[in-house]
């Protein structure tokens, strides 16, 4: 896997932004996109998110440094708490191994 200089790796993102929320990707588009953007403006959101595939749907994982900010996002937008250990490894990194709550 290659990445650009200075870009956060998934492991660095997991270390520095350990409080994560998974949301179905189709809930993050359109009008919800503006709501998410305005909500996250004042939160400790990581510099990037990543995608996972589970049950024939793509999901976005939003990463936060502060547990209270992750809880606020979760309550406002929806989704579920996400444990990074549930993410696949190797060539299956984009697949969710098991759902965690």
Explain how this protein is built.
It is globular, with a radius of gyration of 13 Å. It is 28% helix and 22% strand. The protein has helices at 10-16, 31-40, 67-77; strands at residues 19-24, 50-54, 57-64, 80-82. The chain has three helices and four strands; from the N terminus they run αβαββαβ. A four-stranded antiparallel β-sheet has the order 2-3-1-4. Strand 2 and strand 3 (57-64) form a beta hairpin. With 101 residues, the protein is an alpha+beta fold.
Question: Summarize this, please?
Answer:
This protein is an alpha+beta fold and 101 residues long. It is built from 3 helices and 4 strands.
- What string gives the helices and strands in order? HEHEEHE
Tell me the total number of β-strands: 4
User: From the alpha-carbon coordinates, what is the Rg to the nearest angstrom?
Assistant: 13 Å
Low-confidence stretches: none
Arithmetic mean pLDDT: 82
Overall form: globular
How are the strands of the biggest sheet laid out side by side?
A: 2-3-1-4
Major β-sheet annotation: 4 strands, antiparallel
User: How far apart are the termini?
Assistant: 29 Å
Which descriptors apply to this entry?
22% strand, globular, alpha+beta, 3 helices, four-stranded antiparallel beta sheet, 4 strands, 101 residues, single chain
């Amino acid at each position: 896997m290659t990445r650009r200089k200075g870009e956060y790796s998934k492991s660095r993102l997991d270390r520095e932004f350990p409080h994560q929320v998974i949301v179905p990707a189709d809930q993050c588009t359109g009008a919800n996109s503006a709501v998410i953007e305005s909500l996250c403006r004042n939160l400790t959101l990581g510099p990037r998110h990543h995608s996972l595939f589970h049950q024939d749907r793509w999901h976005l994982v939003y990463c936060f440094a502060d547990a209270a900010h992750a809880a606020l996002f979760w309550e406002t937008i929806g989704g579920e708490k996400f444990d990074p250990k549930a993410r696949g490894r190797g060539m299956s990194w984009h697949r969710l191994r098991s759902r965690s709550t």
